[in-house]
Amino acid sequence: MARHVALLRAINVGSGRKVPMADLRVLLEAAGATDVATYVQSGNVALSSRKAPATLERELTAAVTERFGFPIEVLVRTRAELAAVAADDPFDGVASDPTKHLIMFSREPLDGDHVARAVPDDLGDERWAVRGRELHLWLPGGAGRSNLAAALSDRRLKIVATARNRRTVEKLLRLLGD
Question: Higher-confidence residue: 42 or 33?
Answer without folding.
Answer: 33
